[in-house]
Amino acid sequence: MAEFLQFAFSGLTVGAIYALVALGFTLIYNASGVINFAQGEFVMLGGMVTVFTHAAGVPLPLAALIALVVAIIVGLALYRLAIEPARGASPVTLIIITIGASILLRGGASLTFDKSFHSLPPFAGSKPLMIGGAALLPQSLIVLAGAGAIVIALWYFLTRTLSGKAILATAANRLAARLVGINTNAVVGLSFGVSAAIGALGGILMTPITLTSYDSGTLLALKGFAAAMLGSMGNPLGAVVGGLTVGLLEAFSAGYISSSYKDAVAFLVILGVLFLMPQGLFGRGGMERV
Amino acid sequence: MLRIEDVVSCYGRIEVLHGVSLEVGAGEIVSLVGSNGAGKTTLMRVISGILPLTRGRILFDDQPIDRLPAHVRVARGIAQVPEARQVFGPLSVDDNLRLGAFRRHAADTSRALDRIYNLFPALAERRAQSAGNLSGGQQQMLAMGRALMSDPRLLLLDEPSMGLAPVLVDQILDTVANLRKDGVTILLVEQNVNAALAIADRAYVLETGRIVLTGSSTALADDPRIREAYLGL
């Protein structure tokens, strides 16, 4: 039992991060139809910029804020410089552009920072809480609470503010959105900014537990993508459920089978979804709007 | 109010409009009729700024608007009820209408909302329902309500009667006729030529991207070419 709980705690913690990455995918996909494979780099930037500004003597909260702002600027620049000029290109072209951007950002990070692993001090001490014989790090609680707060804030933004509803409207019907006077280009830009912010916050929260490096975004993007696929691409609730599911599957297979297979889980999830239920868990069947 | 001069527009690489000119005066109801594929919807989208034009000019209040992005044209007072309604399916009726007022101040929105719910009581009863679950007639009312939320001076209506039961068609067209009293100018695209000529002051006939005939509604209703080609008489 203690073992099971232990795996569940670690699964939920990484799952929360995957959920945030998956939400980033979802938001941009909804607003623009683009699957942004640079999503993991926002997480990496959140962690790395915080580590290096903190190391330069900036207090941790301020360092985190700087990292957040840097990631948002990078997200907006990605849209402005790489996605918007390619407007009207096919989805595959746009996806390849985001892969290129991801390689560029990784390279930039390895030059600006370095190629080693870095960590941050835990935000609330490192004395584990013992629950049912399993150890739960305070930082895990912070990750879960932080991810939960981000999900709630995003839900509030999308369903309770006019700008958020403009994103949903653009996702639902781009033509109608333009006809009611929504500047859909600005909405897509906004979705890149918000996705970057969500990714960066995830990166800041997880760095004390999982470490970060210039290339930590690649695997995270793949796992977040698996989570988004599992939860049906474009469905925010599905992204959260998918993220937690992938995290738990990973932790349990690492614990009960072997930790060398840990990273294979996300790929098995992708293959499983593609073979067995291409619409994902929350898909609407084969319904096509006419 | 609206003047279209020699507009050429392409859909992909195919030229759809080959130099269309038409005019809508303030307070008028003008119909644009023509068969499928004549370019009616293309022209509506060019006016709203969804599709670009390759030649010609569009003037609104004597100002050229053909280089303005779509959202600026909405702010200037041009709203469109698009073909096939195009409601925001997953969003509630209330949100659909509020988004219609996207370019207005929040303070004006609730007053405009009351007005629309008065105009279409069926929508008021379903304000929390998602738009995708409404019937075709209710979706048409929603699409009209949403366009009216922007308080337009010029309303473009693209096939509002499409796919509706005859009793609903009458109701929708009555609403259109009543809008004129509120000072809204209307450009109406209709395949239901009979109905279109009944409520319009003037009409244009568009065939394969060209205006082939224009005149007052009564004159067109008596024109033998119209009677044969569109009214089946």
- Tell how many strands the DSSP assignment of chain A holds: 2
Name the structural class of chain A. mainly alpha
Biggest interface in this structure? A-B, 17 and 28 residues
Please name the fourth-level CATH homologous superfamily of the largest domain in chain B.
P-loop containing nucleotide triphosphate hydrolases
Biggest sheet, spatial arrangement of strands of chain A: 1-2
Looking at the chains present, what oligomeric state does this protein adopt?
Answer: heterodimer
CATH top level class name of chain A: Mainly Alpha
By secondary-structure content and strand pairing, the structural class of chain B works out as alpha/beta
Largest sheet of chain A: 2 strands, antiparallel
Q: Please tell me the CATH architecture of chain A by its name.
A: Orthogonal Bundle
Helix fraction of chain A, binned, reads: over 70%
CATH topology of the largest domain in chain B: Rossmann fold
Shape of chain B: globular
Structure commentary:
The complex is a heterodimer of chains A (about 290) and B (about 230). Chain A is globular, with a radius of gyration of 19 Å. Chain A has a single domain (about 1-275), classed as ABC transporter involved in vitamin B12 uptake, BtuC, CATH 1.10.3470. In chain A, helix 9 (about 215-230) runs parallel beside helix 11 (about 265-275) and helix 10 (about 235-255) packs across helix 11 (about 265-275). Chain A has a two-stranded antiparallel sheet with strand order 1-2. In chain A, a hairpin with a 2-residue loop joins strand 1 and strand 2 (about 135). Chain A is mainly alpha-helical and about 290 residues long. The N and C termini of chain A lie far apart (about 50 Å). Chain A is built from 11 helices and 2 strands, in the order ααααββααααααα. Residues about 285-290 of chain A have low confidence and may be disordered. Chain B is α/β, with parallel strands linked by helices and about 230 residues long. Chain B has 2 domains: about 1-75 and about 150-230, Rossmann fold (3-Layer(aba) Sandwich), CATH 3.40.50.300; about 90-150, no CATH class. Chain B contains 10 helices and 10 strands. Chain B has helices at about 40-50, 70-75, 95-100, 105-120, 120-125, 135-150, 165-180, 195-200, 215-220, 225-230; strands at about 1-10, 15-25, 30-35, 55-60, 65, 80, 155-160, 185-190, 200-205, 210-215. Chain B has a 6-stranded mixed sheet with strand order 6-7-8-3-9-10, with helices on both faces. Chain B has a 4-stranded antiparallel sheet with strand order 2-1-4-5, covered by helices on one side. In chain B, helix 3 packs parallel to helix 6. The two termini of chain B are about 35 Å apart. The model of chain B has no long low-confidence stretch (mean pLDDT about 90).
